[in-house]
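Here is the promised in-class demo. Please do not try to memorize the tokens; focus on the logic of going from shape to residues.
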């Protein structure tokens, strides 16, 4: 399934934010900050990436359905594998 570029700006922005958060995690580690602060920020990065992944899969499903292939045109096993890879 090829993703349409016009559907990606929001997802790209989400990933860029996660990238910035990850940079923050690195700074916290380099500064020797408290473990709780580091883990909290790391959890935020993980959640942001998970949401981006789910948004990509959902966008792909929408594109398949909008293309007129209907549910029969969706490779259910492949989509299931994509969802489970994010779990």
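The designed amino acids, position by position:
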């Amino acid at each position: 399934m090829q993703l349409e570029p016009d559907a990606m700006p929001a997802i790209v922005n989400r990933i860029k934010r996660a990238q910035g958060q990850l940079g923050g995690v690195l700074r916290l580690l380099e500064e020797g900050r408290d473990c709780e602060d580091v883990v909290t920020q790391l959890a935020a990065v993980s959640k942001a990436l998970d949401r981006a992944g789910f948004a990509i899969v959902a966008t792909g499903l929408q594109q398949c359905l909008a293309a007129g292939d209907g549910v029969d045109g969706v490779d259910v096993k492949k989509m299931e594998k994509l969802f489970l890879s994010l779990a």
